[in-house]
Amino acid sequence: MVLSGMMEGCNVGTRANVLAVLCEDPAVAIAGNVAAAVAVAGIAGDRVKPHCLTMASVIESAWTYLITNFNDFQLACLGSFFLHESVFFLSGLPFILLERAGWLSKYKIQTKNNTPAAQEKCITRLLLYHFCVNLPLMMASYPVFKLMGMRNTLPLPSWKVISTQVLFYFILEDFVFYWGHRILHTKWLYKHVHSVHHEYATPFGLTSEYAHPAEILFLGFATIVGPIITGPHLITLWLWMILRVLETVEAHCGYHFPWSLSNFLPLYGGADFHDYHHRLLYTKSGNYSSTFVYMDWLFGTDKGYRRLKVLKSDACEAEGKEM
């Protein structure tokens, strides 16, 4: 009881070192002097936190389980695919339910709804694309993952390293995506490739990944170029993938809520910004960025959107004065 109480809250490495010292030194074990064992193990600075498991230790324990029971290929390819599918469909399907049930309709950006048949067509195509394009591509890209220096071993990177890399990925992805997206809006590429994505003028969450296979490969480069440069830990890559999926689902969700991130985070586009892109003809749409708004502002491709915002604001002010 003394041993378990003293060691509770220590990380995995600390507990292993303490137990090793107790086994090697019977005198210490007989005395029950766990504090001495901690000192001998050279970990006296590790503060014992009774009845407290830190988030870091939970994540580390879970990660230890993963790398013990699955090999590199399974984690990098199959694990990434399963994680992507789970996050994508769990975050996207609720918006189909909202649209069909008519819930929270006052926050819907467009009054038009998609038919159940159109929604089911989207889901069927997505499953086909994901299993016949995305999964084989992930498996074939495994040597690239290894070549770019990706690792999955302990110790895990610090939160400072993870957050810095993910921020870099967001900024770089937005820049590369902007130019790739503009290229897809040229006449020939739009007609033969990008028009598939624009079949849904009233987008909902799952339409974010509804696209021609060639577009998936082309714009997918914007997502992986950051990790290719930095060679991240797999946990960083997974966090980046989760955040990127949540961002693109939110941008296509078709709803602008009071709690939407664009209401609080400067330069973030969100659903209202991207929904405008889907409503207009391909030659006049603008709003090409994936996450932020500054690229469209710098290159003047958001002028129509900003004019519309001004008109809406003036109309609201006029209504307020009449009341």
UniProtKB/TrEMBL annotation:
Organism ancestry: Eukaryota, Viridiplantae, Streptophyta, Embryophyta, Tracheophyta
Lineage top rank: taxon: Eukaryota
Family in the record: Belongs to the sterol desaturase family.
Position of the signal peptide: none
Protein name, per record: Fatty acid hydroxylase domain-containing protein
Gene Ontology biological-process entries: lipid biosynthetic process
Keyword Ligase part of the UniProt annotation: no
Record keywords: Membrane, Transmembrane, Transmembrane helix
Domain Fatty acid hydroxylase: 166-301
Subcellular location: Membrane
